[in-house]
Amino acid sequence: MEMQFPPRQPWIWYVIVWSDGTREFKFEDYGPGWWTARELDAGYFDHHGPSVHSEKRLFGIRLQAKTLGPPMKFDFAWLPKEVAAQKWKEIGLVDADF
After folding, report:
1. Distance from the first to the final alpha carbon of the chain
2. How far is the C-alpha of 25 from the C-alpha of 43, rounded, in Å?
3. Residue 10: which of 30, 33, 38, 39 has the closest Cα?
4. pLDDT score recorded for residue 2
5. What pLDDT, on a 0 to 100 scale, did the predictor assign at position 43?
6. What is the pTM of this model?
7. What is the three-class DSSP state of 55?
8. Low-confidence residues in the chain, pLDDT < 50
9. 44-48 and 27-29: which strand pairing?
10. Burial code of 10-40, b = ≥16 C-beta within 10 A, e = fewer?
11. Which residues contact 3 (CB under 8 A, 6 or more apart)?
């Protein structure tokens, strides 16, 4: 995507999908730091482990809650485009997820 302000600046979104199929909430990375993009280019990803999802009731209303997993550092490698496209199909990612 492109940001509206400043114009034409890239706007990068990420979605983490764990091996069991659960997903984290999407998050964004933007300049001038581009911290996540820099980490990935350096071969690692510093984030947290899988979140624990729970549901609570407050005055009869169901509320979704999420507790972040422990801090973790993951090794990372870019996949070739064809392999990445196949992985997207396998885990059911579409552009609307971002």
Report:
1. 9
2. 22
3. 30
4. 56
5. 97
6. 0.73
7. strand
8. none
9. unpaired
10. eeeeeebbeeeeeebeeeebeeeeeebeebb
11. 9, 10, 11, 30
Cα–Cα dist 13/4, whole Å? 15
Backbone angles phi, psi at 97, to 5 degrees: -70, -10
What is the rounded CA–CA span in Å between residue 28 and residue 13? 4
DSSP 2-43: B-TTTTT-B-EEE--B-TTS-BPPPEEE-TTT-HHHHHHHTT
What pLDDT shows up at residue 97? 83
Q: What is the pLDDT of residue 8?
A: 67
The structure tokens listed for 66 are 């999420």
* Domain boundaries of the chain, sorted by first residue: 12-90
